Amino acid sequence: PAAAGARTPAAPGRVLWGAVTVAPGQEATVEIAGVTGSAPGRGSTLTLTAPAGARVTGLPLADSGYTGALAASGRTASYTATTSAAEPWQDRVFPFVLAVPEDARPGTVLKGCTLRLTDARGAARAAGGCRVTVGLAEPTLTRPESGVPLDARPEIAGTAHPGAQITVLDGTDTEVCSTTTGPDGRWTCTPGPPLAPGGHRIQAAATLDGVGAVSQQIAVTVGTAATPAD
Question: Which CATH class is domain 140-222?
Answer without folding.
Answer: mainly beta
